[in-house]
Amino acid sequence: MPIKFPFTKNKKQPVPQTVGLDYNQLPEHVAIIMDGNGRWAKNRGMPRIAGHKEGMNVVKKIVSHASGIGVKVLTLYAFSTENWKRPKNEVEFLMKLPVDFLNTYLPELIEKNVQVRTIGDFDVLPPHTQKAVDEAIERTKHNDGLILNFALNYGSRFEMVNAVKQIAAKVEDGELTSCDITEDLFSSQLYTSDLIEPDLLIRTSGEQRLSNFLLWQLAYAEFWFTEVYWPDFDESHFEKALYDYQNRKRRYGGV
Ligand code: V07
After folding, report:
1. C-alpha angle 15-17-19 in degrees, rounded to nearest 5
2. Which residue's alpha carbon is nearest to atom 20 within ligand 1?
3. Is any atom of ligand 1 closer than 6 Å to the C-beta of 148?
4. Which of 52, 55, 67, 120 would be 153's cystine partner, CB 3.0–4.6 Å?
5. What is the pLDDT of residues 204-248, one digit of tens each?
């Protein structure tokens, strides 16, 4: 499938256009597991954190592109509940990335009418991380363009166990009975309660598993995998994923 790169008048900004991609039938919610940053760095003889930094720049690129073509929700797996097990210096570096990202990119997010949100256990993040992200959430809360949803200290099983606890508490209080427990009620207790479910999951770097990401929400999503490391991922790969998604829908979706 050929991909061409026409250039806009501003020559610095390539606008990838995947031949055949129908911009009127895009997946509304795309979720991404941004894997391979450490391996990318290792292959270059660089420290893992260099891969994370480069990965952060790719986030900017993909957010701009998703916003530009009219994707409604982009959920990015930035930090999992498992990631605390990594070396201390790496965790510290990762926790500074939201600060770095927003220092350099928040004005552009505002300009693009992007709304920043998070899912995950936010309260245990370092205060500087919380402060930067809180400010971005606050300053973009009235934007009605792309919803940019960062999964930060997110784990799907933790999220679901929490949902069960919240429902159990309501039953104990007599607010609900077990008959009231439905899929919709369960969904309403998840971090994603006010979001549509992802249509497409992208995972980079060759691994083909969910790693505790959105286990409930991805029940009907299409999965798209690539060997490409996240720091090498660009707009053309993103569009190829959307293009493949559309073709699967055309072939199997039907009625
Ligand atoms: C992180 C860069 C992307 C590759 C995967 C891991 C490293 C952007 C953010 C971020 C998070 C919240 C926010 C603004 C930006 C981020 C972490 C890691 C922890 F409001 N990239 N990125 N956060 N990586």
Report:
1. 170
2. 133
3. no
4. 120
5. 999 999 999 999 999 999 999 999 999 999 999 999 999 999 999
Query: Using one digit for the tens of pLDDT, what is the confidence trace for 157-210?
Result: 999 999 999 999 999 999 999 999 999 999 999 999 999 999 999 999 999 999
Query: pTM value?
Result: 0.94
Cα separation, 216 vs 31, whole angstroms = 13
pLDDT digits (tens, 9 = 90+) for 111-138: 999 999 999 999 999 999 999 999 999 9
Residue 156's φ and ψ, nearest 5 degrees, are: -70, -40
Which residue's CA is minimally distant from atom 1 of ligand 1? 78
Sequence length of the chain is 255
Which of 39, 49, 80, 97 is the pocket-test mutation for ligand 1 (most atoms within 8 Å of CB)?
A: 97
Q: Answer whether 133 contacts ligand 1 (Cβ < 6 A).
A: yes
35 catalytic, yes or no?
yes
Considering 22, 24, 35, 180, which one is annotated as catalytic?
35
